[in-house]
Amino acid sequence: MAVNLRTEKRPFNIHTVLGRIRLEVKQFADAAMFDLADQGYATPFHQLAACIISVRTRDEVSLPAAIRLFKVAPTPEAVSQLSVKRIVELIRPSSFYETKAYNIRDLALRVAAEYGGELPCDFEVMTSFRGVGPKCANLTLGIACGATEISVDIHVHRVTNRWGFVTAPSPEATRRVLEERLPRKYWVEINRLLVPFGKHVCTGSLPKCSVCPVLEYCRQVGVTAHR
Ligand code: SF4
């Protein structure tokens, strides 16, 4: 359908927009890392290892994979004693499972050997592990460490740019703009809200603008067709 829903826009109000989205996403599954924390896997190690598994893998696949791994090996010490082959068995069919298995075993070995089994809440330490970028480090810091950090994945990037709230070419650039524009009280929550919103409403192709609860605030930047 051609976009014909551009009239009667209101000034963008981040509080109203996020409030409406908070209500909207109640009907959808929680973002994977938050769900994992709610299921009892809320330590920095659990969150970071699960985030490694989640890279380029749908939540529906990566979340059960992480839980399979942690049920067999709930601590860094236990994971470090698994063979790469065993980790592969547990985390597939997540994408790049072999590389991820090596990275998770490396993470577990170093956390056990260098940090006494407790991954520190430290961005530099977290991003020193293979397979860990700023998104995973910030998500872990936000969920497991209580830190105020913004984790920008492809959904947060796409949605905030479509709103016109951000104009940035990449998730990392979006994160820097959000750090200036987004009230700190939303820094952790924005990922929890916009991941399910981006998966179910403001989808990559053909977003559901006609039933979107924030249509009147959204500039629909780059949207050429919608449902
Ligand atoms: S679904 Fe459409 S109206 Fe809603 S946030 Fe996305 S682009 Fe904007």
How many individual helices? 12
Share in β-strands = under 5%
Second rung of CATH, namely the architecture of the largest domain: Orthogonal Bundle
Strand element count: 0
Looking at CATH, which topology of the largest domain would you report?
Endonuclease III, domain 1
What is the CA-atom radius of gyration, in angstroms?
19 Å
What name goes with the CATH superfamily of the largest domain? Answer: Hypothetical protein, domain 2
Structural class by SSE content: mainly alpha
Tally of distinct domains: 2
Level-1 CATH class name of the largest domain? Mainly Alpha
Tell me the helix content.
40-55%
The distinct bound ligands, ions and cofactors come out as: iron/sulfur cluster
Summarize the structure.
The chain is mainly α and 227 residues long.
Structural account:
The protein has 227 residues and is mainly α. The protein is 54% helix and 0% strand. It has twelve helices and no strands. α1 packs across α12, α3 (44-54) packs across α4 and α3 runs antiparallel to α9. The longest helix has 18 residues, at 97-114. The model has no long low-confidence stretch (mean pLDDT 94).
For this entry, give a set of tags.
227 residues, mainly alpha, Endonuclease Iii, domain 2, Endonuclease III, domain 1, 2 domains, elongated, binds iron/sulfur cluster
Topology:
Elements: H1 14-24, H2 32-38, H3 44-54, H4 59-72, H5 76-80, H6 84-91, H7 97-114, H8 123-126, H9 134-144, H10 154-163, H11 171-181, H12 189-200
Bound molecules: iron/sulfur cluster (SF4).
